[in-house]
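[User] I wish I could look at a protein chain and see how it folds. I have put the entry right below:
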Amino acid sequence: MGLYHDVPSRDSVRVTPVIGFVENLGDLDKLNINHAEVDHVFTVSLSELMDQSRWTLDDLGQRGLIPRFKSPGRPDVWGLTGYITHHIIHHLLTPFKVTSKPGWTS
């Protein structure tokens, strides 16, 4: 689908999220992953990610609030991944309602 805007990590490394769609992922064990960079591989459905009751905010003091996605039986999605995922869900995928200004008619 495309690239999302760069997001700086707390170490000032710029991360470029890539948004895509995988129709039939198949067996996750067959993925060729870099174990030095990836701790866990798991899937979460879009409908789960859009469920606001699964999101909380961690208060990291001076570092601010960080979104955390909780899904039973899977690792939490938090930190930079949680921030990016929450931002994409909130700003690109959450349904919105356009309302008219006072005095305008539809």
